[in-house]
Every structure is written in C-alpha cells, then in structure tokens.
Specification:
- By secondary structure, the protein is an alpha/beta fold.
- It contains twelve helices and 13 strands.
- A hairpin with a 5-residue loop joins strand 3 and strand 4.
- Helix 6 packs antiparallel against helix 7.
- Keywords: Lipid-binding.
- May bind long-chain fatty acids, such as palmitate, and may play a role in lipid transport or fatty acid metabolism.
Length: 310
C-alpha cells in the first residue's frame, strides 16, 4: 500500500534539495559600479547601458575609475549633452543563452529603477522566452549605483546562507524599499542642457548658490526635496537624515557614496553626519557615465543602505 504521507514528504524534500543546490546566476546592469570582488564572480553577469554622443558615437557604460573621470572632464565642455540607452533585447537574449549554456537554472535580475530606465522591462520581456529553461526573479532596485551593488551583495549573502527564492525575493524587495538615495546636483547648467531646468532658473540658482537635493522615492522616481544654499546647511540636513535612519535600522544601516569628480566634498559631507561613522568603512565609487550624463559633473550620490532582516 502506498504511504501518501511519505510520498509527499519525499517529493517536498526532493524539490527542497533541488532548490538549495540549484545553480544560480545574478544579472545586474552596469550602473551598479560593481567592485572587483563582485564583478569577478563567475555567477555575476552584467548588462551594459550606453552613452550616445551627439555625433553618433556609442560608448558602453563603464565602472572603470579612469574612464569615469575622463568622461566627466569631457562632459564639462559639451554644449549638447549625450543621450543614454538601455541594453538591446538582442544583447539580453545573448546573455541568457550564455547563462543557460553555463548550466544555470535560476537567475536574479537586479536592475536600475524602472522609473529611470526601461532596462527592467526589456529583461522581463526577454526572460519570458526562456521560462522552460531557467527561472528568473526580477528585482527593481528602485534606485541605481550603490543600491544595486548592495542588492547584489545581499543576494549573494542570502544564497550562501542557504535561503531559497521564496525568502530571498521578498527580502531583496524590502532592501530596495528601505534603502534611501539622495543626489546633490553638481551643476544647474547641466540640468539646463538636459532640458530639466530653464536657463533663467539656472541663472538665479547659480546666483543664489542653490544646490538642489534630489531623493529617489520608493517608486523609483526623482523628487526635489530641498534647495540648499550653504555647505553647513547641507551637512545639517544629512546629519538629520542619517540619525533618523540609524535610529530605525541600527547595525543594519550602511553608508555609501558615489560621485562625479567630487570625492573630497562627498567625504566632507559624510564625515559630518555622525561621530560614529568610520569613513574607512564607507563604500566609495564613481557614478557611471550613464548616470552622470543626467546629473552632471560635480554631483554626489549619498546612499543609506539597509541589510535584509535575515
């Protein structure tokens, strides 16, 4: 006689073991600025966004510090801004074929905010072509840069701890929701070139030495939350933001900065947030050319990163 309880238990254990042993890949877009210890992992794959210059030249996004620095120096002298482009469906298709040929059965796609780029939509569309060969879990970073990088690190940590997608996906979505992104725009002139601010507005903004403070909200949209005139006010603002987040998340909270040729100013702001902050523990990277095209030279991204509560 068949023991249905044993049969069900054995079936459950089979799928549990399969989930734990499943070969898993991570796809992340180029704006994440992955450090070498993450980008060199064999199961981490990057899809590149691009910068398109007015003369038609196309350059792939890059996290190389020298390439980033050179790009911002070049950007400073442009009268017409480049545009940016998401990866093509063909590029994503080729990447999926590479992943499947390498034996991966599961993919986590960690991608720049869907409100800022169509990359997530393209990844979702292409992934449906391969549903019979690989399972894909999409995570909207609801930001970019250091938040995407943090999501990759957290995904790897949770996989190593033996968690499966049923736990990892909601945990990563919570990380994306709880982490905060603030951008200090370095040049109002750049917003004029990009059509986001009138020339008159920029003139008076520069005259009054106003720096817009932008927050990427939980929907992944850009929101101007303040207009700051002095460095002292800026430091006070970020100190209050940090203290509020630290009171809520404690040791789960980490700081990161990403900048476009503004490292010294960024470190000065972060160093004044709290006496408890060890600058040596703050992650520092450059804003990639794709991100920097929109915010301009001299901009600073300050990221409050929250670990998954696991």
């Amino acid at each position: 006689m068949v023991n249905y309880v044993d049969t069900i238990f054995c079936t459950m254990m089979y799928f549990l073991r399969r989930a734990i042993n499943m070969k898993t890949a991570i796809i992340v877009d180029s704006t994440a600025t992955l450090p070498e210890n993450l980008s060199s992992l064999e199961n981490v794959f990057q899809i590149k966004l691009s910068v398109i210059f007015p003369d038609g030249e196309v350059r792939e996004d890059s996290s190389d510090p020298q390439v980033i620095s050179d790009y911002y120096n070049e950007l400073e002298n442009m009268t017409t801004l480049p545009t940016t482009s998401q990866p093509t469906n063909g590029q994503i298709y080729d990447l999926y074929e590479e992943i499947i040929q390498a034996g991966y059965e599961e993919v986590y796609g960690i991608v720049i905010a869907s409100q800022l780029s169509g990359t997530l939509s393209s990844l979702e569309a292409v992934s449906r072509t391969f549903t019979d060969q690989v399972t894909t879990h999409m995570i909207d970073a609801k930001s970019t840069s250091a938040v995407s990088q943090h999501l990759v690190a957290e995904c790897l940590r949770l996989l190593a701890a033996g968690y499966t997608a049923d736990t990892i996906v909601p945990a990563l979505k919570q990380v994306a929701d709880e982490s905060e992104t603030y951008i200090l725009v370095g040049s109002l002139d750049n917003l004029v070139k990009g059509g986001r601010l009138s020339a008159t507005g920029a003139f008076f903004g520069n005259l009054l030495k106003i720096t817009p403070l932008i927050k990427i909200d939980r929907a992944g949209s850009l929101e101007v939350i303040d207009k700051i005139r002095t460095e002292r006010k800026m430091r006070e603002k970020f100190k209050a933001i940090y203290q509020t987040a630290h009171a809520k998340y404690g040791d789960r909270l980490h700081l990161a900065i990403a900048h476009s040729n503004a490292l010294e100013r960024a470190l000065n702001i972060v160093g004044n947030m709290s006496d408890d902050i060890d600058i040596s523990q703050v992650s520092v990277s450059g804003l990639t050319p794709v991100v920097g095209t929109h915010v301009g030279n001299g901009s600073i991204g300050i990221f409050l990163l929250v670990d998954a509560d696991l």
